[in-house]
Design a protein that fits this description.
With 257 residues, the chain is of the alpha/beta class. The chain is built from 10 helices and 9 strands.
Length: 257
């Protein structure tokens, strides 16, 4: 069965020449003001039994008109510098517990750490690094044939990472959180927020959620995405889990968190 965007093996090399590295669009400038629309308390309970209460905040005036939300956790006002996680929506990982990525465990970790510290999880509707759910599933099919998570997006006609954090900056400004600690391994998140008027006082790394099925995906994020992970250790861990396919070694996973 043909997969949209399915191309010969050399597509990975071509894609790397056309779109060096993992660079997304350059985002800079002053952001238009957004406003808080509504605040609703919602009790949360995760599969491992951890529970907390989040105040879910919705917004008006977001530049991309998407229904992003902020989860206010703990006591941000008392924290001095709120701890903030920008979490891109991942239906397969966050809801269904997919083992192809580390998104679900990262969300679970962020909620507990931010509850203790005080701050926000910004839950952003950016499935598949911004390409959408169906194209993310098509990217999975290409990964199963040998492309890594970035080249699969490129083969489908997308950038390696299409996420734009302008709305996230608008949300933070509306929340009065223009100076934050950022919970992330992804340097692009801090770089974009910085260009949009958010001061990153400190970038706090997330834990490493390594499994047998996501090892190669995490190694790809470390090697090509510049994430602050232990690249050499991950590569050693990933090697036994690469399965040869018709296009070469397979790399699992698709979100670039």
């Amino acid at each position: 069965m043909a997969v949209p965007g399915d191309r010969p093996r050399h597509v990975a090399d071509v894609a790397r020449k056309l779109v060096p590295g993992r660079r997304a669009r350059l985002v800079t400038g002053t952001v238009r003001a957004a406003a808080i629309r509504r605040r609703i308390p919602i009790p949360l309970r995760f599969g491992d039994g951890y529970s907390t209460v989040a105040t879910v905040v919705s917004f008006t005036g977001l530049t991309d008109a998407q229904q992003h939300v902020a989860l206010e956790l703990g006591r941000p006002a008392a924290a001095g510098l709120p701890l903030v996680r920008l979490h891109s929506e991942c239906l397969t990982g966050d809801v269904f517990g997919s083992q192809r990525c580390d998104c679900g465990p990262q969300l679970r970790e962020a909620v507990e750490r931010i509850t203790r510290h005080g701050g926000y999880v910004l839950y952003l509707r950016q499935e598949g690094r911004g390409i959408g759910l169906y194209d993310k599933l098509d990217a999975y099919a290409l990964q199963d044939r040998g492309l890594d998570t970035y080249d699969a997006n490129l083969a489908l006609g997308h950038r390696a990472d299409e996420r734009d954090y302008t709305s996230a900056a608008q949300m933070l400004h509306a929340l009065g959180a223009s100076r934050i600690e950022l919970l992330s391994n992804n340097p692009d998140k801090g770089a974009q927020l910085g260009r949009l008027g958010i001061t990153i006082a400190r970038q706090v790394p997330t834990a490493l959620h390594l499994t047998g099925t996501n090892a190669a995906y995490l190694a790809t994020k470390a090697r090509r995405g510049g994430h602050d992970l232990l690249s050499r250790s991950l590569e050693r861990a990933a090697e036994p889990h690469r399965q040869p396919g018709p296009l070469g070694p397979a790399h699992v996973g698709t979100e670039g968190r």
